[in-house]
Specification:
Elements lengths: L4 E6 L3 E6 L2 E6 L13 H6 L10 H14 L1
Antiparallel strand pairs: 1-2, 2-3
């Protein structure tokens, strides 16, 4: 997780983030969208986002905890 960043572009295998005024390309497999209480599934599908049944929040949480321990 990179705080104080803004997404610029989501690509197939990476994302471009603006961090402190500079754009960085970060390798990426998954993107979580937190857009309020009701997910905008229809909009996301229209713009090409694929939604699946796999719950990645637990995996992401475990990965974040590991990253904090090794940082």
């Amino acid at each position: 997780m990179i705080f104080n960043s803004q997404p610029v572009e989501i690509r197939e295998k990476s994302v471009l983030l603006e961090i402190a005024g500079q754009v960085r390309e970060i390798p990426n497999d998954y993107v979580w969208v937190f857009a309020g209480g009701t997910p905008p599934n229809e909009f996301l599908q229209k713009v090409g986002v694929q939604l699946g049944p796999r719950d990645l929040t637990r995996e992401g949480s475990a990965e974040a905890k590991l990253a904090r321990r090794t940082a």
